[in-house]
């Protein structure tokens, strides 16, 4: 095969074009002669311009300044074949200059040049017209104009030209055009693939290489790959790869093959043709990093199928890949990392990689400057640590966790996503989790949660959920503004992102400070709406809502009107009244800051100290009641007596028993107004209430019960009613063992304090209603 194109071996000559040799005193004269009415003079002028332009770029720019382009473009449409030929050759010679190319673009020369591609024109006209287009097609706007001017069909036809220069120029233009998606689709629809495959048989390497580059681009499209396969494209690629004389084409051929291996049908062809063996041979090609890199990329695609994974493992590909990780070439290292990532999902390969010590090698690559290499190495670490705690520990021992945290700030979404996913894999181990957090992982993840990239969000949310089981981690996330990002993601329309966001909220809402902050940010309302929506509800939305309410009992009571016996009231709990539909429940801090108003007070529990209107309020009465309950109620042996005694304590603290028919005379409203005025706050400590009715007494009873370990619920009724339910087991007198039957009672705190009313009796119903 000749390794020189005709353009290399046959310099352009005057005889080739039939030019008549003339001597022109200056290029200015030649340009002026382009406007001559005599055809012979015009042809001679074109020859002179061609000769002058061929001598260098300065001459081409000089001709541009003399105004040669306008007449030359006009002459492309001349009736004389010789004139058209002379004009296009002169233009083709000048178009090499970037300045000339810009001018051709401004002069809208493309339609006139494309017209010279018609079958009626001479081969030399085709050659120089396509030569012009090779330069113009490098520009984005010109590519679009060539496509819009329907230039692609003519260029495809010229791929079959008998002239290799025309073939070379045409395939180069097409190679530039198909970088754009619409041109790729059009090329396929116009049936260009068979002609392109024929060029692989060319005697000229430059044509073969351009054909392969074009194939590499168009085979990114699934339909094009299907046609490529039907036209025996795979077999023709393998012919190139099997020919040692074509070694300079192997890299491009392998890159095209890598695209085709995205389809299962091509994978079958690889196995049937023993192509896998040939690919493995390319890995050992010395001093050919481009070939090695492309071959590894192919193997990465092959590794998509379980059968291929097994075969590669049997060929001990793991050892080869580990060796390739140590070569100098960055592209080979990067491709090897990608292959390790693909192979890591084969359990046997994962074990081999561990034995070969690949994790420390990959971890070291995280320190390299190449962004692509770091991204690929991180992806490999993710695959190796997925479901493998030994590999996760190896990453930790190699200091990889610190580097992965740093990479969460990277600009490359793939790197960030893989880093977060790897950290998620590692964080299952407590010791590693603590170390990850110590390097500022939550601050970094708070930033990652602001990303627009879906993969980054998915892995970052899972990582947050894994790390947030630690209280310190949740506090760090709050300080870093991560909860705001979480709440924003609850509005996502991507189902997987939404599900992971709900999962992260569920974990982050495990403590009261985070739950309160999430509620303040509007998470509660979003989750409530989500659980009611058929389209947005998911596995974790209801769990997230329940977790949020469980850790923020004040909001739960305001919304649900009920606290179970397992909902333990602690200092900072407040009763803001029944929440209105769609209205956010304000935090205690927000309520404290409000100016004094005429609304119902907010009743707060301060078992320690709390703040009202910037003044420290110590609910000493409540603390005294807790102490008294511990000393006088808790020692009682029978539960029934304990509840009765506690009820009497509550009643005495809030004004004593009030007969039902005298309830309207009980001055509780005036008392609360006076309290608010005295405190200059809408928030009233529950212990400070000396005249309280149902809702106040029930809250105090629940608070004291929870403080001393008794079990009771708190239920809100209408019109300031509230009550406590307790469960008592009936006892069997002969052996004093509890039977299986349980009874529920409402505790009377108002009329006959200490009386337990069976919930199924009229007396209990009357206590709950007016």
Residue runs with pLDDT of under 50 for 5 or more positions: 1-24, 611-616
What does the average pLDDT come to? Answer: 91
The span between the termini is 105 Å
Shape: elongated
Oligomeric assembly: single chain
Rg over C-alpha atoms, rounded to the nearest angstrom: 41 Å
| Residue share in β-strands | 5-15%
Overall number of strands: 10
Structural class: alpha+beta
Please name the defining characteristics of this protein.
single chain, 770 residues, alpha+beta, 5-stranded antiparallel β-sheet, 3-stranded mixed β-sheet, disordered N terminus
Brief description of this entry?
With 770 residues, the chain is α+β, with helices and mostly antiparallel strands.
Give the topology, please:
Elements (H helix, E strand, L loop, with lengths): L5 H4 L4 H4 L9 H7 L5 H15 L3 H9 L3 H7 L5 H14 L3 H9 L3 H5 L8 H14 L3 H9 L3 H7 L5 H14 L3 H9 L3 H6 L6 H14 L3 H9 L2 H10 L7 H11 L3 H9 L2 H9 L5 H14 L3 H9 L2 H8 L5 H14 L3 H9 L2 H8 L5 H15 L3 H9 L2 H8 L5 H14 L3 H9 L2 H8 L5 H14 L3 H9 L2 H8 L5 H14 L3 H9 L2 H10 L8 H11 L1 H8 L1 E2 L10 E2 L12 H6 L8 E3 L4 E4 L2 E4 L1 H13 L6 H15 L14 H12 L3 E3 L8 H15 L4 E4 L5 E11 L4 E11 L8 E3 L3 H7 L2
Helix pairs in contact: 3-4, 4-7, 6-7, 7-10, 10-13, 12-13, 13-16, 16-19, 18-19, 19-22, 21-22, 22-25, 24-25, 25-28, 27-28, 28-31, 30-31, 31-34, 33-35, 34-37, 36-37, 37-40, 38-40, 39-40, 40-41, 44-46
